[in-house]
Write a structure and sequence with these properties.
- 2 copies of one chain form a homodimer.
- Chain A is an alpha/beta fold and about 325 residues long.
- Chain A contains 13 helices and 8 strands.
- In chain A, helix 3 links the parallel strand 2 and strand 3.
- The two termini of chain A are about 25 Å apart.
- The C terminus of chain A is likely disordered.
- Chains A and B meet through helix 8, helix 9, helix 10, helix 12 and helix 13 of A and helix 8, helix 9, helix 10, helix 12 and helix 13 of B.
């Protein structure tokens, strides 16, 4: 079976942004450039390279502009940046980033702690950003990541209806794509399936704009939740190489899904991610040297790729044929 | 919703056997007794307490007889022991263990390395053990764990047809229950679903005897594979507290599914495991002290139980209604 006949899945690298956010070691720009180039060479076609936030708040991400410029030299690479406010969006538009990701916390408490705004104030920002983007004739894609969609360390429960209301509002305000994020690692697979399915139904003709699952491994369920989302039709996942990641306002929430383990699972199940796992593991080794002393995650780097072949022919066997709703 | 109205799932503790096998620290019998009592108090009703193998080979498991005797004082606890041969089975019968687990490697290469027998010689042992058990009027239950069912570090691929042939042969030889084990951490969720479904179909009226999934986290997929098995109807899982485990003949295969993370996932999804996660985490803390310096696994012990409530009402939502085949 040729690669092109396999179903595709996208693993977006968020290690340079969500990952490094919780890493004390300041990674020099030269190393980040090398990371982006190597990830691209390994086949990663979507990379969140940084964030436009005040440098005094996040010195780790101060070189985002330079990273965007570098990413733009790599043909076909979609470089996204996180923009928590209008000012950040202006920078993204000005630098012609391929995409900007606006975080909207479904938890009001997390939203206040993270961006000092209510979720609805964030929705208003989206409309403002969309207007500015269109007025500038810019092509910078607007994506919204719905943070704490599965629960919040500050507030506890987050209402599913509120998540769906905000997803709709984000799209109405001009977001071109939305995703659900388990920012603090509270999600379980049943909840992931339920909320994504509920959201797909609620969004109706716009359901194709809900495309991304963002899971943290805080309680060990990142890959089980990835599988759950895959089962209901999600084909785009955020992940951090070496499983780095977290959120300063979500205690204990360290650890995005590890890119290498996510790619291994998807490829092994018969999905084409376009990513070369050996090259990815070589890059992980490099990054582990750069981040010496930091807590890293992921599992497959230790044991290596199996000696047995993947045997998913036909892809996903009978199971997926019942499950996906899109 | 009362606990009793929830679907049940069983997590069998195998840390004392499969787990300690790869741990250098010799755990004193007193600590093992405490472990068993505390696990029982936390609600674990099935515990693999040890193995009847030559003491010179596995000094770590030399006190199995004492552990079986202790387990028998705890009402309702099902204590199982691993028996790799007829001699071990005789001991299990003599000591009136509740159950004995006979490992049969589906990989001929692994079988040779692990027990110096072919898979079919192991099948012959089962028949011999069953005859001895019945002749003794013993009630010791006979279970077969099909090792390397998803691939082998020595041999590579393992044929699914061979796995199914051996499952059938094991039942024909007198095994009363069988399970599939990913001894070396090669399995992916698509493969897990495919092989279990294929086996359920092949076993026909005996499919209710295939009940157990045994997954290693070597490549990070233990919980995703647990979810995959759950989706196709498996309701019994092996796991090790603190994710200890491995196999001396399977390089790099350290790390069973962590009991605490498995219980968290199942309970969170709406399954009743009968296990109190807080008590389990307290025991994990104790064991981590006993095993100081050893590599432990698992994730939830670090971050703790979520502040948000589980919201799986009804259990498993719509998804599971499509999937389970039994």
């Amino acid at each position: 079976m040729s690669a092109s006949s396999l179903p595709h899945a996208i693993v977006r690298e968020v290690g340079l942004r969500d990952g490094l956010l919780s890493i004390k070691t300041i990674v020099p720009t030269a190393q980040k450039l090398e990371w982006i180039s190597a990830a691209y060479a390994a086949g990663q076609k979507e990379i969140e390279v940084g964030s436009f936030v005040p440098v005094r708040l996040l010195p780790q991400l101060a070189d985002t502009a330079e990273l965007v410029a570098h990413a733009k030299t790599l043909p076909g690479l979609v470089a996204s940046v996180l923009v928590p406010n209008f000012k950040g969006a202006e920078r993204a538009i000005e630098l012609d980033a391929d995409a900007m990701l606006i975080p909207v916390s479904a938890s009001a408490a997390h939203s206040a702690a993270n961006v000092r705004k209510t979720p609805d104030e964030m929705i208003a920002s989206i409309a403002q950003i969309r207007a500015a983007r269109d007025a500038a004739g810019s092509k910078t894609f607007i994506e919204v990541g719905m943070s704490t969609a599965f629960g919040c360390t500050i507030q506890g429960d987050v209402s599913e209806d509120e998540v769906i209301r905000l997803l709709r509002a984000a799209l109405d305000a001009g977001a071109e794509r939305v995703g659900l994020a388990d920012t603090v690692g509270y999600a379980d697979p049943a909840q992931v399936r339920r909320l994504f399915e509920k959201a797909f139904r609620a969004l109706g003709t716009q359901s194709d704009k809900l495309t991304c699952g963002h899971f943290h491994d805080t309680r060990g369920l990142a890959l089980a939740n990835t599988l759950a989302a895959l089962d209901v039709g999600v084909r785009r996942f955020d992940a951090s190489l070496a499983g780095i990641g977290g959120c300063p306002h979500a205690p204990g929430a360290s650890g995005n899904a590890a890119t290498e383990d996510t790619v291994f699972m998807l490829e092994r199940m018969g999905y084409d991610t376009g990513i070369d796992l050996d090259q990815l593991l070589a890059l992980r080794k490099q990054i582990a040297e750069w981040l010496k002393g930091e807590q890293l995650g992921g599992a497959i780097w230790r044991a290596g790729v199996p000696k047995s072949s993947a045997r998913a022919t036909p892809p996903m066997a009978s199971f997926s044929q019942q499950a996906p709703i899109r």
